[in-house]
Amino acid sequence: SHLKTKIASSVAKCERREEERNTVARSRCDRCNKPLRTCICSSLPPKLISTSTQVLILQHPREFRKSSLSTVPLISLVLEKCTIKVGYTFSILDLHLVQDCLHRGIQPLLLFPGPSAVSLDDCSNHDSEQTHLLQNIKSNNQLLILIDGTWSQAKNIIKQSPELMNYCQQIQFQ
Prior knowledge:
The chain is α/β, with parallel strands linked by helices. It is built from seven helices and six strands.
C-alpha cells in the first residue's frame, strides 16, 4: 500500500513536470528580458552612458541563474563599457581587460573591502600615499572590477582567484 502510494506520487509528479514543460512561457521584452508586465525599458536611458571607466563584473553562477531577479544584465543596457564574466574562479590570463590594463601600466581597481583597500569615501582622512592613489584613480582611464554574489559567494571568488588580490588595487566604501 505504501509502495503504491509512492509510485503514484512519483508518476503524478512526472506528469506535472511534463505539463509545466509544455506550458507556454509568458512573453518577455526583447530588450530587458523582463516579463512584458514588468518591463523597465521606459526607465532606461535612450542611449548607453559613456564613461572613461571600463566595468568588469565577475558574477557567481548562482547569481547568473537568478535571471528574473538579477540586475546585472541591466547594467549592460545602461553602460557602454561593461563586460560580464560568469564563474567560480578567475585567472588574470582569462581576463583580457585586466591584462590590457596592466600592459598600460595601470593597476585595475577591485571593489572589495579589506585592510589594504583604499577608502573612496572621505578624502580628508587619507595619508599621503592613499591621497596619491586616489589622484591616480581619478586621472586614468580605469578598469573597475565588481563581484556579483552574496558575501559568501564573493569571498569564495576572491579566495579561489588570488591573482585578483595580487594584481588589483582594492577599493572600498565605508
